Each structure stands twice: as structure tokens, then as C-alpha cells.
Amino acid sequence: MVRPAVVYLLLVTAFVFLLSLSGTPHAGQKRRHGRRLAHHHASFDPLVGKLERRAEEQGLLDPDTFQEKLNGIFNDQDWNQAPEIGVFEEYFGEEGRLNVTERLMYLFPLLDRYPEDGKISFRELEFWNRKQALDRLIYSTDGQMKLHDKDRDGAVNLEEFLSHLSKEEIDWDNKDHGNPGWWKEQFLNADKDGSGSLDSDEFRDFLHPEDGGNPATQLWLQKVKLREMDQNEDGKLSFLEFHDRFNDFYMGFGSSETDVADDSKHHQDYAERKFGELDVNKDGFLTAEELKPIINHPQPGEFFYATHFTKYLMREADDDKDGKLTLKEMLNHHQAFYSAAFKEAIFDDYDDDYDIHDELR
């Protein structure tokens, strides 16, 4: 039986812990020169991810709702029936503390697989973080599927997805971002089998094209981005058009206006170099196909963040700079693994500290 005092300790401690996940990184974070990601949420520990999802489902991530539920539990004195208690007790125990040492010791051999050498390589850590990212995508998609699958047939058609709109509001010719014609284009691209409805995998590509493996949805996303940048509407981008919007990409990673002003030469050089890299046929223009390498800018997807979260963890915890993490290094820097909001520099390829090999591919 859960004691009343323990209930309070579990709920309050867990709530404070969850709030800390969206705070700033710990003071020990290293500062590097480069464009910076804004704070982003990522869970290294799948059990913490589960806790967050359960807490979100119970409404406990909202302070007002949390206080309301806490008051209700104490007023009813229903210590053991409250669904919030079970999930928190699973993680925090009766002392109200998450034992990160035990968690890291448990998780380490699960990551140390390719090969099992007592160290975790960049690829092993990235593989793990991408798995957590996929779990988040699946969870998010499942939630949207339940919301939109009106007939509960396990698939969503376009009418179901746009059921919140009246017939008068549906204008298929309106292809501006977020309008019916825009969604219809993406829906047709995501419908691989042409069935007129999207199963869970197709629906995930539909909702998260930047994270999907469907070439059609990704090409569509590239065309959308080109249209947004194509000022003279000639179907391609000149360097001037690219440069004008490149500032949006640059700012999109968290750089302030002061950063850009202070580093305008680096910014200009980077824009020119990136344009040259993207312009594969060297005709002085960029097509939608050539925009593929920047498909995740300025709104990165979960897999993009998973890779950069991996870089953040390696730079924080790899004390001897051998490109691998030992259990001791992870334990010494456990704050990095359990401070899920991170802000990390995105470095140019030539400035990458880690020699990344295709160990898992």
C-alpha cells in the first residue's frame, strides 16, 4: 500500500523532474562556435519517455491540472487507485528519487552491441537515440490516428482528416500551407498503394515527411520549400533568392540577431559554400531535387535531432576524446543524459570531432 506521505513525495518530485526536462542544459555544457539548435526535448532513457507520455495523458505536465489532480487525490484519500501513482512509483520509488546510476548501468549493455567491447561508439549511441525518436513518432502518429480514424478501420482518408472543415470551407484549389489543397497534395504523395486511405506507416509519412522514408513525400516537401523561396516563381532558386531565405535557416537554429551581425562574414561564406554544395549540376540555380540535403531546415525532424543529441552527449561525456563512451564517463556526466532539453551547436562537416563510421549499416 502506498503511504499518503509517499504519494505527495512521488507526485511532487516527479512533476519537478518533468519540468526540469524542458529547462536549460546544465552549466557544464561546452560552448562551440557554430549555428545552434534551439532547446529541444529528447529522452535518452525509454522509461523516462514512457513516464512523460503517461504524465501527458494524465494532464500532469500542466501545473494547474497537476495541482487539481493532487488536491483530488488527497481529498478522496484514494491513495492506491490514482493512476498517476503507479507510473511515478515505477520510476521514483518511495524515496522520490530516480536512480540514474542504476538506470545507466542497466542501459549500457543494451547500447554496447556492435561490437560488445565495453564502450559505446557514436553509431551505437545514434542508433539508440534514433530508436527513441521512432518511438516518439509512432506514439504521436497513433494519437493522431485515434483522433482522425472516425470509422475505426485502422486507416485515415482525406475526408476524415479534414472532417473539422465544412464543405463550404474546403477549397481544393487553395494550396497555401495548411489549406485543403496543400493537404491533398501531401495525402496523395503519402498514399503509396493508391488505396485512398493511409495506414499507420503512410499516415506517419504524411504527418512527418521530414522523418519518413517515402521519396514522394520528401520531394513534395522540397518543392514546397522551393516555392516559399522562389521569389520570381521560375521554379528554381538563384543564389540571391537562396541567400535571402538562408538567413531564416540560419536564425532557425537559435542564433540571435546579434550572433548574425557579429559573424556576418562567416554567415555569408557559409551561404556561398552551402549553395555551391547543393548546386550539383553547377548551373547557378537550385532545383527542388537539389534541396534534399536541407530538407530538415529550418524545422528539423525527430531523426535530425536524434543525431545532434548524440553529438551533444558525445561532446559532453567523452572525457578522453577517443570517440567512445565508457560506463564511467556516462555516470560522471549523467546530467547530460537526463537533462532532455539541449541546445547544441551544429558544426560544419570539416569541424566534426568524431570520425563517424558506418558500423551499423
Automatic annotation (TrEMBL):
InterPro entries: EF-hand-dom_pair, EF_Hand_1_Ca_BS, EF_hand_dom. Coiled coil: none annotated. Residues 1-20 form the signal peptide. Pfam families: EF-hand_7 (PF13499). Keywords: Calcium, Metal-binding, Repeat, Signal. PROSITE patterns: EF_HAND_1, EF_HAND_2. It comes from the Eukaryota. The keyword Calcium applies. GO terms for molecular function: calcium ion binding. Residues 145-171, 178-213, 227-252, 266-301, 305-340 form the EF-hand domain. One of its GO terms (cellular component) is endoplasmic reticulum. This is Calumenin-B. It comes from Cocos nucifera (Coconut palm).
